[in-house]
């Protein structure tokens, strides 16, 4: 659509520019807040992954017992139910890990070695940490997408819409100034012609 080079169009472009400049700071602030939330989410994920690694490293001795044992511990612990809630952070829906319920297969306290109780607790802790890690990965993914989208919008305002509006305003102003100058010149020429014609009219 071609740009109309008139005063009405100039007002429209100025109004648009004012709207863009008013909207951009709040958009950029939201982007910065989402970036901060994304960084916080990354830090939490790293912390959880470190917890998993530290927990498994700390139980190396127990794993040695398991490797040497002939006990059948298949399906000893499994997740029976897990609650995942959602929260709204700056318009982004993020998952939140709620309560986890475990099902522990019944076993005889006398028939099983003493360390089976520790294995049950360890498996529950590891499963909880893994569930937390999965939720934190989803949060990070959704925040990353939100940051990408809002950054695109900020760039659209900063690099396209605002410069285009400023450029259009300048074009219209130059055209109007040129038109006004041309009108003044035409007026002067007309007056000069009238001045030349008056003596001729009186002579006739």
Identify the notable features of this structure and list them briefly:
alpha+beta, coiled coil, 204 residues, Helix Hairpins, V_ATPase_D
Question: What secondary-structure arrangement, pairings included, does this model have?
Answer:
Elements (H helix, E strand, L loop, with lengths): L6 H52 L1 H9 L8 E13 L2 E13 L11 H88 L1
Antiparallel strand pairs: 1-2
Protein name: V-type ATP synthase subunit D
Family: Belongs to the V-ATPase D subunit family.
Organism: Stieleria magnilauensis
The DSSP helix count reads 3
Low-confidence parts lasting 5 or more residues at pLDDT below 50? none
The quaternary organization reads as single chain
Mean pLDDT: 88
| Spatial gap, N to C terminus | 55 Å
Q: Which fold name is given in CATH as the topology?
A: Helix Hairpins
Largest sheet: 2 strands, antiparallel
Total count of domains:
1
Level-2 CATH architecture: Orthogonal Bundle
Shape: rod-shaped
Structural class: alpha+beta
Please compute the radius of gyration using only Cα atoms: 37 Å
CATH class: Mainly Alpha
Number of strands: 2
Your description of this structure?
- By secondary structure, the protein is an alpha+beta fold.
- The chain has a single domain (7-165), classed as Helix Hairpins, CATH 1.10.287.3240.
- It is 73% helix and 13% strand.
- It has a two-stranded antiparallel ribbon.
- A hairpin with a 2-residue loop joins strand 1 (77-89) and strand 2.
- Helix 1 runs antiparallel to helix 3.
- The mean pLDDT is 88.
């Amino acid at each position: 659509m071609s740009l109309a080079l008139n005063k009405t169009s100039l007002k429209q472009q100025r109004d648009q520019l004012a709207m863009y400049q008013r909207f951009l700071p709040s958009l950029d602030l939201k982007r910065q807040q989402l970036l901060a939330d994304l960084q916080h989410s990354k830090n939490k994920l790293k912390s959880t992954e470190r917890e998993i690694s530290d927990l498994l490293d700390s139980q190396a001795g127990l794993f040695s017992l398991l490797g040497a044992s002939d006990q059948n511990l298949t399906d000893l612990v499994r997740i029976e139910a897990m609650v995942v809630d959602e929260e709204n952070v700056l318009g982004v829906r993020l998952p939140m890990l709620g309560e986890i319920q475990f099902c522990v297969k019944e076993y005889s306290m006398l028939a099983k070695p003493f360390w089976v109780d520790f294995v049950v607790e360890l498996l529950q802790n590891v499963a909880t940490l893994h569930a937390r890690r999965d939720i934190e990965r989803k949060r990070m993914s959704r925040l990353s997408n939100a940051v990408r989208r809002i950054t695109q919008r900020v760039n659209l305002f900063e690099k396209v819409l605002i410069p285009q509006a400023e450029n259009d305003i300048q074009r219209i102003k130059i055209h109007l100034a040129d038109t006004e100058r041309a009108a003044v010149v035409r007026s002067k020429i007309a007056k000069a012609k009238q001045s030349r014609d008056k003596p001729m009219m009186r002579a006739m």
